[in-house]
């Protein structure tokens, strides 16, 4: 939601906004999503040696300033009561009590409970100041769930790949967020191995990987080649784009990834039943 003075209650709400207008934005065939997928596939194959190179974008506003608060003892995010108590404490703090809008960040479970609290009691959390705006943690929680959902969905293929790459310590169909770092590293190995293999095999080919549409169409007749290419096109490159967008502060790219990843989150295998609806509420608030 945007803070536009003079529009709606407290001047915080978008006038004449149709909430159903965002539904098409999540379709896998939406032009924004397809164009982005093709552009990153083309970009990564244009120079494979730079694929894992980190960006060098510096913060636009200098070093982050943090003011620490006292911990809220005996409260976590394990219950709705705990989260709502924490929201109350933060809203009542002298630094925030006179604000119009208050952004509260957290992991996925915290965000989900805040969203449910707002839905249950909009007069308290939405139509009273400071209004609460849940903010998701992009990394490591957001990136971990994108990797986790895609890992589950692609597991039958990934299992053979991690064995072939001698990464047997990662041969497990499911894992916890505490194991994210190891699986992030494993994903980098798999992504680089598959990309370099395709790049080497296709050197001199009449239809190179940079001609994305015709290239994927040509590989459709070969199941093994199709699996390799779509692992990159539909999952690995999406995850890596998200990681780089977090580092470089590319908000619009992150929003595109949340739209694209919703299709994975909604699958039976991906099974991100909380993150899929949170993707939708996030994009709803981001739309101009």
How much is the radius of gyration in Å? 21 Å
Describe the largest sheet.
Answer: 2 strands, parallel
Number of extended strands: 2
Helical content band: 40-55%
Query: What is the overall number of helices?
Result: 11
Mean pLDDT: 88
Query: H/E order of the elements?
Result: HHEHHEHHHHHHH
Shape: elongated
* Strand residues, percent: under 5%
What strand order characterises the main sheet?
1-2
Sheet/helix structural class: mainly alpha
Contiguous uncertain segments of 5+ residues: 1-10
Count of domains: 2
Distance between the termini: 8 Å
Question: How does this model look, in words?
Answer:
The protein has 11 helices and 2 strands. With 288 residues, the chain is mainly α. It has 2 domains: 27-52 and 139-286, no CATH class; 80-136, no CATH class. The chain has a two-stranded parallel ribbon. The chain is elongated. The termini are close together.
Features:
288 residues; mainly alpha; 2 domains; 54% helix
Short characterization:
With 288 residues, this protein is mainly alpha-helical. Helices cover 54% and strands 4% of the residues.
């Amino acid at each position: 939601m945007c803070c536009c003075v003079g529009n709606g209650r407290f001047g915080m709400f978008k006038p004449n906004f149709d909430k159903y207008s965002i539904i098409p934005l999540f379709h896998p065939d939406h032009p924004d999503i397809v164009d982005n997928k093709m552009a990153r596939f083309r970009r990564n194959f244009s120079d494979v040696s730079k694929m894992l190179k980190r960006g060098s974008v510096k913060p636009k506003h200098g070093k982050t300033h943090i003011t620490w608060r006292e911990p809220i003892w005996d409260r976590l995010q394990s219950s709705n009561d705990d989260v709502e108590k924490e929201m109350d404490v933060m809203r009542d703090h002298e630094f925030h009590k006179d604000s119009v809008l208050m952004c509260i960040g957290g992991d996925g479970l915290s965000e989900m409970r805040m969203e449910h609290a707002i839905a249950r009691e909009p007069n308290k959390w939405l139509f009273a100041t400071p209004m609460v705006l849940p903010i998701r943690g992009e990394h490591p929680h957001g990136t971990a769930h994108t990797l986790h959902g895609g890992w589950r969905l692609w597991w039958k293929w990934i299992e053979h790949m991690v064995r072939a790459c001698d990464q047997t310590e990662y041969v497990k169909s499911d894992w916890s967020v505490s194991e994210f770092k190891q699986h992030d590293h494993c994903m980098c190995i798999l992504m680089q191995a598959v990309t370099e293999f395709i790049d080497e095999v296709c050197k001199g080919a009449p239809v190179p990987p940079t001609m994305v549409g015709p290239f994927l169409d040509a590989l459709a007749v070969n199941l093994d080649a199709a699996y390799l290419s779509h692992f990159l096109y539909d999952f690995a490159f999406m995850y890596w784009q998200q990681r780089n967008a977090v580092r470089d502060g590319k908000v619009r790219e992150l929003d595109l990834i949340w739209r694209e990843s919703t299709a994975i989150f909604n699958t039976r295998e991906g099974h991100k039943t909380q993150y899929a609806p949170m993707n939708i509420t996030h994009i709803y608030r981001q739309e101009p």
